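step 3/5: co-fold with pantoate
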Amino acid sequence: MQKFSNRQREGGRTIALVPTMGYLHKGHLSLMVEGRKRADILIISIFVNPTQFGKGEDYQEYPRDLTRDKKLAREAGVDIIFAPKTSLMYPPDYQTWVEVREVTRNLCGASRPGHFQGVTTVVAKLFNIIKPHIALFGEKDFQQLVTIKRMAADLNFDIKILGMPTVRENDGLAMSSRNTYLSPRERESALSLSRSLRRARELVSSGERNTTRVIEEIKGIIGKEKLINIDYIKICDTDNLKELKKIDRKAVMALAAKLGQTRLIDNCILKP
Ligand code: PAF
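step 4/5: write tokens
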């Protein structure tokens, strides 16, 4: 992979990378379409990264279908799929980790200890292996995007990190490979997540600036759904992810919830 990328760079060609864990959906495809436009060579990685899953999480069950992914990637104009074996990414003597501190403390970082360390470690490795000029990530994983931007800046990766808007199903559900776990009843309940985010946006555009009041209303909407257990609903500064008392600057409303065993996240940007 490194030799291939070196040759492209020596030939003056630019490389775009879309890192994924596979089981591609329209959210991934939108990243690929953008990557295709922004560089000469489009590479995607498909690697279900064990180090970002905690104990009792869905590493084993995570959906995998490389044959289907290859077809979708080809249709999207992908030049190379980098799909390494786990034992090559993490040989038995592996012992190096990348940790981004402040922005990973809150939100999913609080509920999933070690998760972001796994993400930044594997993304740093992918950057060094694939050597892209630009890497594209979905805004659905907002904290992941902020964390990777921080890592790239702090560790001087010469790579542009581009966030792309969340892609949703027609009924509002944010695209996620984990949506395949949902039963029809759970899926119906899950719609309250995007509905509540829309309501938060309405509240803020009609002048509400108090985060507690917005969060309480949103908790009320989601709380009506018996199948949902809320993990967190928070309104944070988009740059440092610290919680805000007042929506007096660009903010992100981020939430995580469980439907049965399935953990879903979603977010929206609130602008005063
Ligand atoms: O967003 C994902 O699919 C993963 O967290 C990533 C960035 C591919 C790292 O494993």
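step 5/5: annotate
The mean pLDDT is 98.
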